Amino acid sequence: MIKKIQISLLSLCLLSISVSYAQWTGPKRKPAQRIEVKYGPITPKNRTDENMERFRNYGLGQFIHWGLYAIPGNEWEGVSARGGAAASEWIRSWGGATAPKDWKNTYDNLYKQFNPKDFDAKKWAKQAKYMGARYMIFTTKHHDGFAMWPTKYSDYNISKTPYKKDVTKEIVDAYTAEGIDVYLYFSVLEWNNPNYMGAEPKTPEEKEKFQKFLDYTRNQLLELLTNYPQTKGLWFDGTWDKSWIMAYEFTYNLEKELRTKFPGIIIGSRFRNDEFGKRHFDSNGDILGDYEQGWERKLPAEFEWLDGNTWDCVMTVPPNGWGYMKDWSGLYTKTSDDLIDMLMHCVSMNGNLVLNFGPDGNGKMHPGEDILAKEIGEWMKVNSEAVYDVRHAGLSPSKLGYFTRKENNLYLTVFNRPVNNIVRIAVPKKSTEVPKTAKLLVDSKELKVVHSDIGLDLDQSTYYDVVLPENFNAKKAFVIKMELGAPKTAAEKLMDAKM
To answer: What is the C-alpha to C-alpha distance for residues 40 and 251, in angstroms, rounded to an integer?
Structure first.
């Protein structure tokens, strides 16, 4: 009976592979009945080792998309993604009537121009430190196949450029020196690799060819982790093609090998799938990896959607620009207020926000990114206590902002200031912990706390009002820190109306 279920599931999953991407906007449905899965999770759902606890406490991270695609900067000969080109880091895949003649060959030779004379890894790392990032993810190789380290398994790498130096090493060393943990992005998919194929290999010749690609991929991953032992984890991309999906036995064994040779390594849910084609979560709904990687440019609306998984959200500044974009005009670019809101949304649900930067071909950040790093950093200097090492508070969501908690301290980051200056906190009537004292992080000013049992019919909550000074002015979100303790008296028990 199990085999029949497996065959049925396999057929269904393979039909849906083409739309099974790393994007979702609601709770994941778990199957009503568990089945036998041979190539499911290798590590437990919630690792409790030091590396994973550090991951859960990061709060804020930085993503850096940098490669040959920084040279075009999302356009070529005056044509950008808004005029028909592919998105910045995808521009090598540009085709059709708007594409320049012999475009792919032109792109594949851009490495001969890559000489970022303004690149300073230490400057990048110091900026990230100022912003408040505790970890960073660097693109060692994107879908174009160009390696940003001197790999011995391909000639298409940084050592063949005019720059010649090992960019990845410079970045890993600089960020590590600043106390920022480093994760390496690695795309499996390679557009210009003759041994790569998107479709499932079927003939003996195709299988032999793709096996060469798989072996090459294994070698590069082992090389990266050997060359840069400071690496805390791997962030995978380009794992959606059917060729990779059908290599589930190989990828399962590769993950086991990586974990055996590099104990403590953190691998997200994007790396592989089970034998039924299920990515991120196997056919029983169990997470494949150490944390959930599906929140790309989106956020969960409810804490329960996460089902207790460790997770992070990677976010762009323009609507969907990862690599360098020369021209931000005409696009909505996220403000520091937007991003701080997203940051607190994430940490209030036990997640991290990872903000993407796309440096140009000379190694300089976009001026808009420089501004955001400064503004976020200034805010974090005052309010990071509500961001780092915190957890979901377990209270009903507030229309005023986001709750986070650390030990017996409750934080409310206020984005929507009430016009009457009364910040009302709803607490379950049976709670043994309620706000006892309150102060503003910005100036440590003590605030008045009043118990307001307002007596709504059938209401399961009681209320504590934190009173803001009328002369308190804030141009950005501000944090109220409350110390929790036992209530002085139980909430009033009144007779509810009979209806």
So the answer is: 11
Characterize the bridge pairing of strands 60-64 and 351-357.
Answer: parallel
Residues 236-294 have pLDDT tens digits of 999 999 999 999 999 999 999 999 999 999 999 999 999 999 999 999 999 999 999 99
Integer CA distances (angstroms), 165 to 122, 174, 224, 370, in order: 15, 14, 16, 25
Through-space distance between the first and last CA atoms of the chain, rounded to whole angstroms: 53
Spatial separation of the C-alpha atoms in residues 481 and 407, rounded to whole Å:
12
355-378 per-residue burial string, b: 16 or more CB within 10 A, e: under 16: bbbbbbbebbbbebbeebbebbbe
Residue 106 CA to its chain's centroid (Å):
32
pLDDT in tens, 362-416: 999 999 999 999 999 999 999 999 999 999 999 999 999 999 999 999 999 999 9
Q: Is the model's pLDDT at 23 over the cut of 70?
A: no
Per-residue pLDDT of 296-346, as tens digits, reads 999 999 999 999 999 999 999 999 889 999 999 999 999 999 999 999 999
Q: Give the count of beta carbons closer than 10 Å to the beta carbon of residue 185.
A: 19
Q: From residue 16, how far is each of 20, 21, 241, 242, 368 by CA, in Å?
A: 6, 10, 12, 11, 39
DSSP string, 16-78: HGGG--S---SPPPPPSS----SS--SS-SS--SHHHHHHHH--EEEEE--SGGGTTTSEETT
Taking CA atoms, 57 is separated from 52, 309, 333, in Å, by 9, 14, 27
**CA triplet 119, 125, 128: central angle to 5 degrees?**
120
Residue 479 CA from chain centroid, whole number: 24
